[in-house]
């Protein structure tokens, strides 16, 4: 880290420029260098801060978001947190609509940051009561409000095209052979992938999907069809969002929660990295990509957020037992 860097003018300047960390266990297991981009170090605690900053800046530039206005969004939590951090810094209010199935930590964080939090029952996207549709209606009915629309607002993927991809390229000195991550909105995989492909068209871009999502079958077989289920939050998509349009991947993986949790537990216990399940899914995908490509390659993935957002879920032995999932080994007798 550059100790001579000037102080940031505001919290927005702290978004991005997150470091890469070598994941020792996955690297040694594959003979590759597997690097994680530490997006949990953003001020709002997740990769979603990048999209939030670009979405707000875009709304301001278009004149859609005026001083004292309100930002409304439907989110699994992290985008809402990112938007609220950005909104607080810029003088806006936030109304966040979230499924009531998301972690208590995310709900409490949003309230603590000052967002108006509206919880709705989980519902399929085809249902008018889905959290995304609910947020759109609230935005339409609220004077001075804009709908962030993270799934179909391509300012989301532009954030990664303009920041995440060039950061990774610079941090690896261009020595990167593959990139993979999961999809929620599609912004991170599409923007980062397209950006890295601009630097090196031969880079291997891979989708890593949780079970219960439809994109694995879309890219493998041309069919939007989901199989299985996952307790992961913020990832897993059943449709082609605007942020996914034009995306082409070189390969795809589908990772069960049990496999991903193994990496979450190992990285916490042996490398000091406390991560959420989506990060575990990403690391599992990076390991699979490394094994497909062979030793000596450099693979980068996204460490989306901290495990501290999931103390009541994947770090809670009783919750894990109820879901039929393995608890962290050091907590199993707690």
TrEMBL record:
Record flagged with keyword Transferase: yes
One Pfam family from the record: PALP
Gene3D superfamilies: 3.40.50.1100
Record-level GO BP terms: cysteine biosynthetic process from serine
Keyword Transferase attributed: yes
Required cofactor(s): pyridoxal 5'-phosphate
UniProt pathway: Amino-acid biosynthesis
Chain ranges of the Tryptophan synthase beta chain-like PALP domain: 12-305
Key words, A-Z: Amino-acid biosynthesis, Pyridoxal phosphate, Transferase, Transit peptide
Protein name: Cysteine synthase A
């Amino acid at each position: 880290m550059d100790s001579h860097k000037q102080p940031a003018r505001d919290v927005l300047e702290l978004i991005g420029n997150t470091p890469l960390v070598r994941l020792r266990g996955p690297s040694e297991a594959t003979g590759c260098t597997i690097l994680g981009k530490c997006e949990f170090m953003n001020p709002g605690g997740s990769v979603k801060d990048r999209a939030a900053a670009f979405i707000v800046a875009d709304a301001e530039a278009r004149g859609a978001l005026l001083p004292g206005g309100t930002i409304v969004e439907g989110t699994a939590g992290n985008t809402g947190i990112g938007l609220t951090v950005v909104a607080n810094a810029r003088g806006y209010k936030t109304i966040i609509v979230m499924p009531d199935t998301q972690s208590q930590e995310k709900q409490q964080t949003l309230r603590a940051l000052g967002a108006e939090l509206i919880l709705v029952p989980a519902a399929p996207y085809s249902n008018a009561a889905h959290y995304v549709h609910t947020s759109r209606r609230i935005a339409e009915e609220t004077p001075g409000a804009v709908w962030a629309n993270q799934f179909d607002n391509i300012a989301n993927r532009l954030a990664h095209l303009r920041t995440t991809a060039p950061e990774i390229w610079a941090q690896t000195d261009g020595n990167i052979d593959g990139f993979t991550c999961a999809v929620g909105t599609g912004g991170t995989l599409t923007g980062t992938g397209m950006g890295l492909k601009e630097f090196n068209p031969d880079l291997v871009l891979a989708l890593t999907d949780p079970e219960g999502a439809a994109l694995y079958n879309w890219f493998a077989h041309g069919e939007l069809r989901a199989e299985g289920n996952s307790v992961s939050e913020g990832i897993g998509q059943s449709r082609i969002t605007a942020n996914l349009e034009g995306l082409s991947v070189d390969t795809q993986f589908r990772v069960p929660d049990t496999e991903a949790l193994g990496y979450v537990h190992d990285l916490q216990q042996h490398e000091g990295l406390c991560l959420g399940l989506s990060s575990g899914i990403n690391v599992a995908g990076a390991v699979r990509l490394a094994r497909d490509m062979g030793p000596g390659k450099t693979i980068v993935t996204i460490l989306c957020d901290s495990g501290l957002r999931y103390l009541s879920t994947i770090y809670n032995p009783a919750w894990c037992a109820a879901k039929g999932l393995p608890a962290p080994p050091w907590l199993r007798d707690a």
